[in-house]
Prior knowledge:
Oligomer: single chain
Number of strands: 28
Shape: globular
Distance between the termini: 47 Å
Structural class: alpha+beta
Number of helices: 15
Radius of gyration: 23 Å
Strand content: 15-25%
Amino acid sequence: MIINKFMLRLLVVSCILMLAVITSQGKVPSTLPFSSIRVKGELQERLERNFQRLEEEKYQPHKVFLSMQQSGDWPGDTEGRTILGLVMDAQASHRSPLYLDEIMHRLPEHLNECGYMGPVFHDCLHEQQLSGNGWLLRGLCEYYLWRKDERVLDMIRNISEQLFISGKDYYGDYPIDPMARQTGVGKASGNISQHIDRWQLSSDIGCVFIGMDGLIQAYAILSDDKLKPVIESLISRFLQIDLLGIKAQTHATLTACRGLVRYADITGDERYILEAEKRFLLYAENGMTENYENYNWFGRYETWTEPCAIIDSYMLAVQLWQHTLKFKYLELAEKIYYNAICHTQRYNGGFGCDNCPGITQNTDDLDVHIPEAHWCCTMRGGEGLSRAAEYTAFVDGKCIYVPFYRNADFTYNNIDKMFTVEERTDYPFAETVTFNIKQNSMGKLALCLPHYFWMESISVKVNNKLLTCPEQDGFIVLTCRFRSRDIISVSFKMKTGCGKTINPYNTSVDDCTAFYGPLQLCVRDSTKIILPPDARIEQRSNGKFYLRGTQIQFGTIYHLMTPEVWKPKQSAWQMLFKAH
């Protein structure tokens, strides 16, 4: 029997990961409700700008509902993503959306006679229709979880039953043979590229499994046992796919993996975490660009990036940490946030696509490919930024995890007890973080603060008294009966230098990247920069980064929505360097 190389690889990884997954079973740390979190600083600004963008005319009630032709054969996609983005931005920014109520009021009149969006196909399934209505399910589910509007349940139920359950006999036949699928085709918005048997198939290969994630969230809300075999049929087919061989879309793959995590949360079956983790590791090696964005399809390095997938990768990395407590996933999420999410958010609050530097495109420069993917990524940006706010703190009993250093206020309520803290920092451009305890009626607590690998000489003080704290699973564990007005300060030094590239198939052995802490550095200069192997980057008194001993100045790939990153060919920055 000949074993497919992809499946053999997954089998090997399964054996490596199995013990870790078994030991992680049980209760996982949970997020705080949005009502208990107030983000400040740059994340607050990003949320507000994205929220404003989603309330401009394009996303208003008289514009947001699209015909099949206007949607490019993606029924429900724009509407679902818009509802999702508005719901998430509203909760994270604590502001009522201006037009969401009217969008929800008008939605039923745009559904077909069966209660979902798009035409009714009687003899085939339309992959993009399942994907688009999957986003509609996601938007409606998050709206229900927020507003508890019982009227939405009928729409969730109709889409689940009339579209997804009615196609239950088709999912096992979803075409996954790499020789049968058209690869090397597709635009940024995707299109129906071929027909095989009873399937109208998308150039966004695997996007049917985006619909699966929406269906799984519907199942979490409806608890309808009729959905379970349909979900498991979709999961079974997804797990059979040779993602590299079929050149699956990375966005679809990552969304499907988030669906696996969601299903594990519902069923308690940690095997789904294992399967999601295996595929995420495959993505991290084969689908991630050198600044932690994504190749739009596996193995297609000539293409572009897509913030939808970047946001999926960020969320999935955090969720995998949540379930496995493997700190490397938080470190990866931190790099995705600063170098990918923050780079692709444009000055208008929307999100756009970049090129993929490396051998295939014959460039070391990161550049804009599409100024704004207003039809999908701008809306998903709302979810990504809102999740970043939600990830401010995780709790497990009397253990509080702060996975990321950022400006935020949060309160942990446990029955009738309360712990409130203000977190302030200029990280990652500064090397100190301060926590001001505002209230604690919970008694002795364990406050867990991240010690990323790029931090050295780290120290912790409480009220200016230096403490020696144990570390566990990547966190400094500060156990104390905190009092109101206690001040915790964390200081450290950022590591700098040259780092290895991510993807060995699209870079040369002598390629490297430059970094300061989690920040990737770049140079805007017509002369290509070559770095010595022992290169050291320093931050000088003017706040700028330089190659030590020279006047070569670096910028950061990170930016706070600068207008400079908008037009292709006008915002190119060298981010790959030769190390000699």
